[in-house]
Amino acid sequence: MPRPALSRRARLGATTVAAVVAGTAVFGIGQATAEHSVPRTDKEIPNLTQVQDKIKAYYGDTVTADGEHYASPHSNYARQVHGIEAKARTYLSKALARHSKDGEQARPAIVLDMDDTTLLTYNYELQVGFHFTPESQDKYLANTDMDPVFGMDRLVNWAHDKGAEVFFITGRKEAQRDWSVRNLKNVGYGVPLDRTHVYLKDKEHPPAYLPCGATCTTVEYKSGTRKHIESLGYNIVANFGDQYSDLNGGAGDRTFKLPNPMYFLP
C-alpha cells in the first residue's frame, strides 16, 4: 500500500506476475508462458479460491469472535520473517560496529517501507477480500491500527539503540501521515517519527529533490528519497521492503526483502 490506483497494483488473479508462497511451494500467477504475458488457456492460471486459501494457510489465519482475521505468530509467514530478521540483526551488528570503529563522518541509517514491512496489512486485506481501494484504505487507517510485522518493531528499536538513524519511506499518500504515525507509535516503534524521518508520497507538492515530481514511479520515488537522505549526511547501511520496487534503484549498502504473497507493486 499506497496502491493509489489498481493500474499500479497487480492484484490476485491479474496477469502480472506475483509469487504466492505457501510453506515451501511457490506458485506463479500468469507466469506459465512468460512474464506479463496473456495466458493462452485457463490451465495457466491457478484457481483464485485455492490461491487465497494457500495465502490464509501461510499466514496461519486466525479469526476472532467478531470476525476479524489475524496472522498467527506461529505461522510459516512468521517463521520466514524471523529468519530474515535474524540475518539482518547479524549484519547490522557488524555494520554498525564498523561505523563506530572507523569513525566515519556519515551517520549510519536504516530505511524501511511501511505496509507489510513494518506494519502488517493482513487483517485489512481479508476485510476487503484482497480488493484494495483508496477509499477502503482511508477508512481502515483512520480507525484501526495494523499490527507490527512480527519482530520488526524489536529489530528497528534495537538498531536505533545501537546507533542507527531510522527512516520510513512509504507510498502512502501525504494525507495519511497522522494515521500512519499514530499506528507506528501505538504498536511500539520507539523511534523519531517526525517529518524528517517519515516520508510519504506527496503528489500535490512533490519535493524538489525528486526530478520526476508527481510522475515518479515507485522505484524513482523511493530511490530518490534514499539518495536525499544520504545527501543529508547518512549512510544507509540497510534497506527493508516487501516489494522489489522498495529496494531497487541503489542508495543503500544492503537490502532485505520481506515476504508478501498478497499483492505485487511494480
Describe this structure in words.
The chain is of the alpha/beta class. It is built from 8 helices and 9 strands. A 5-stranded parallel β-sheet has the order 7-6-5-8-9, with helices on both faces. It has a two-stranded antiparallel ribbon with strand order 1-2. β8, α8 and β9 form a beta-alpha-beta unit. The longest helix has 27 residues. The termini are close together.
Oligomer: single chain
Mean pLDDT: 88
Question: What is the 3D form?
Answer: globular
Order of helices and strands: EEHEEHEHHHEHEHEHE
Structural class given helices, strands, pairing? alpha/beta
Terminus-to-terminus distance: 12 Å
Query: What is the strand arrangement across the widest sheet?
Result: 7-6-5-8-9
Helical amount among residues, as a percent range?
Answer: 25-40%
Global Rg: 18 Å
| Helical segment count | 8
Largest sheet: 5 strands, parallel
- Number of distinct beta strands: 9
Short précis:
The chain is an alpha/beta fold and 266 residues long. The chain has helices at 48-59, 76-102, 122-127, 134-143, 152-161, 177-186, 218-231, 244-247, and strands spanning 19-22, 25-28, 62-63, 69-70, 107-112, 165-173, 198-201, 234-241, 255-257.
Protein traits:
266 residues, alpha/beta, 5-stranded parallel sheet, two-stranded antiparallel sheet, 8 helices, 35% helix, 16% strand
Summarize the helices and strands and which ones pair or pack.
Layout (H helix, E strand, L loop, with lengths): L18 E4 L2 E4 L19 H12 L2 E2 L5 E2 L5 H27 L4 E6 L9 H6 L6 H10 L8 H10 L3 E9 L3 H10 L11 E4 L16 H14 L2 E8 L2 H4 L7 E3 L9
Parallel strand pairs: 5-6, 5-8, 6-7, 8-9
Antiparallel strand pairs: 1-2, 3-4
